[in-house]
């Protein structure tokens, strides 16, 4: 399931000045979700935010316990493997990791 990036960006762009702690947590989750979908686990759907990462953001306390580096490397290898198919025209994935 995905959500349009422009809607997501418009909805969570500016944190209200009088935001409660719960609202701040919601905006933090939204920001992290956008980073995961658009930077770390990027694919060809650059205009969409994938909600598949949402369960991992349920508890912000547990977020640091996940091995995000290993997951990003596995995602990069998966995208590179897909890129070896002769029918593939564009390469997708976190290519900034490949460059470094």
From TrEMBL:
One of its GO terms (biological process) is meristem maintenance. It comes from the Eukaryota. Residues 9-99 form the Aminotransferase-like plant mobile domain. Transmembrane segments: none annotated. This is Aminotransferase-like plant mobile domain-containing protein. The lineage of its organism: Eukaryota, Viridiplantae, Streptophyta, Embryophyta, Tracheophyta.
